[in-house]
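Journal club prep, notes for RB
We'll compare a predicted complex against what the paper describes. Inputs for the iron/sulfur cluster case:
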Amino acid sequence: MNQTTSVSDPSPVEKYRNNFLKEVEANVEEGDWVKMCMQCGVCSGSCPLGSAWAHPPQELFMMIRAGQREEVLRSESMWMCTSCYSCVVRCPRELPIMHIMHGLANYANRLGLAPKMNPTKRFAKLFWDNIAATGRVNESRLSIKLYFMNGLVSGIKTAFAMRKVGLGMLKTHRLNLIGFFRAGGIKEKNQLQQMLNKAYEIEDKRKGLS
Amino acid sequence: MSNIVATHETILVIGGGISGMTTALEAAECGKDVILIEKNPALGGRVSQLYKYFPKLCRPSCGQEINLRRIKANKRLRVLTMAEIENLTGEAGNYTATVKIHPRYVKENCTACGACARAVTAQIDDPHNYGMSKIGAAYLPNNMAYPQRYVIDPSIVGTEQGEKAKAACPVDAIDLDMQEQSMKIKCGAVVFATGWRPYDASRIEPYGYERYEDVITSVELERMMDPFGPSAGKLVRPSTGEEAKDIAFIQCAGSRDRNHLSHCSRICCMASLKQSTYLGEKYGDDEDAKATIYYIDIRTIDRFEDFERQVRQDKKVKFIKSKVASIVKHPDSGKPVLIGVDTHGYHRYENAHDLVVLAVGMQPSLDIASITHTTHGIALDSSGFIELDSANGGSANGDSENAAVNGVFGAGCASNPLDVNRSVQSATAAALRAIQVVNRVAASSSAARSQ
Ligand SMILES: Cc1cc2nc3c(=O)[nH]c(=O)nc-3n(C[C@H](O)[C@H](O)[C@H](O)COP(=O)(O)OP(=O)(O)OC[C@H]3O[C@@H](n4cnc5c(N)ncnc54)[C@H](O)[C@@H]3O)c2cc1C
Ligand code: SF4
Ligand code: SF4
Ligand code: SF4
Ligand code: SF4
């Protein structure tokens, strides 16, 4: 876990700082803000998810500082964030809390520690695979995949329950059924793949992931 | 009034609160000529609106009385009320202040008999009570007001009400033709004691100060406790007029918050601790009387920790470590409900209280940068408080020793959010600094004469 760069840093302040906090600062998007949290609780009290959280953002930040690496990275909590921004606009220290939530989720995923069956995670993966394949979101494929994410029977049930919405969307040209059969997407898809691969490579190198 | 004789050896003190009065008195009692200007119709500043002082829990009026006696006894100190600083130019030893005098419509021969007030029926929001109650438009600013002179509100000037007041005055003290005046004051040193104002609570949107009557500010609670205040000394829910026994205090309301004031206002923890003792005073052992203090951390500086320790022993007072996230109105009882998560265990709470007091932050009352055009500017900190900077309003003259002599100083809450004790200390220090500047002016002008 000690994979950060400051091994040679001689200052005692650096040396005795909690390692997981350092890791988060180095590897998680906006992670260097975590130390600015003053534990006031406004973010947790403002979050519409309320009691649904195992650990509200304020608590996650404290757990990071307390070095509870496993508990944080395996948590479902940061996957729950709906990006509503309530916390961000109210935080007295102007922490980009929402971005840190997504950063933590992403980092946990990269390390393979994210909870396997978390629905947000699975949807995020469907979405990513969908857009990364062609460079455009194919909405009909995405929604069908989402419906059948939990198996055939539940997929048929969901599709049936949602049929009115689906028909409405078709009528208003919000959903394109032909797209399901024709892949579409950008020109030069392979260049997109090259760019993504390069980005992965740079990120892995910077964060010391393999 | 506009031909005030002032010299380069005069000290100008701006703001007649506890700090300004202290600076002015200390300097005048050392034999210096001092002019004290105050924009309100009476001296006293914010402390005259407090019910009791921490830490001793005494009434502010007794200190005020002593100061007023000293002012009346001093021939070197001149006081101008309804006088507002508008501009300051020059350099150490040679400043010119432009001061606007608002018309009081009442002359110096007023005997404070009150006949004008009895004749007038028009009312205005009482500024002494932060507009929580009304006062007649011919009024004495407060019972202890110095000078003891009535004020006619401009809203009735030129109306029948104004004429009634004038006709009622037995000594012909009312002059409804009084005009606003502008005067220039020359002086050698300047002390800003312009104090603070409460942060505008309506800007803290989630607390609904504008939406919920039962959400008030800490300064308003002080007025509620005053027997002559808007609720005759009763703690009430403004929405119903019922007694308020279960009171919540929200700390750091507008302070320590980069969306509002980024500084800690330093006195509001002590103010809420003090105010929690008001419950015991009002309700004795009544078990329904409860104070709940919601805080990020309690900051009681140095000796005040003793006060905190005492309050923590009071069973009526409960502490919840949490900055409240928002307030909603209970659908049935109409009471304010505080929503948040506490830091000791991360529990969500939704607590209803009778009355919510926002411990609002302190900010400088005057935008000092906008009125000072001295040769050297005035150094302000990021919140607008005056720094003790050796170049403040300094002189531009070439000799190195005097190159940047500081001639402008801050005193009391114009320099920092301070309690009364520390305000008075800082005011005394400002007096000593100002005296040194005018002494130097005196020395250099007598040296010039003897050459
Ligand atoms: C809720 C609350 C409770 C408090 N309780 C206590 C307590 O119990 N004990 C304690 O020690 N402290 C207490 N304080 C702090 C106390 O109020 C301050 O220490 C004190 O008011 C500082 O006095 P001052 O003279 O510096 O400022 P002020 O009292 O603000 O006086 C400044 C004066 O300058 C005048 N002025 C402003 N602008 C101009 C201008 N442009 N031209 C001319 N004049 C101007 C104003 O009219 C005012 O009269 C409390 C504060 C709050 C918010
Ligand atoms: S609102 Fe900001 S400072 Fe307060 S607990 Fe949340 S992240 Fe920390
Ligand atoms: S942005 Fe996420 S963490 Fe913040 S309040 Fe909304 S749901 Fe909660
Ligand atoms: S203005 Fe006249 S009537 Fe009013 S209080 Fe003064 S002396 Fe009395
Ligand atoms: S004194 Fe207390 S209430 Fe006031 S800003 Fe500081 S911590 Fe907050």
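Talking point for the session: Residues A 37-43, 57-58, 61, 91-93, 95, 97 surround iron/sulfur cluster (ligand 2) (CB under 6 Å).
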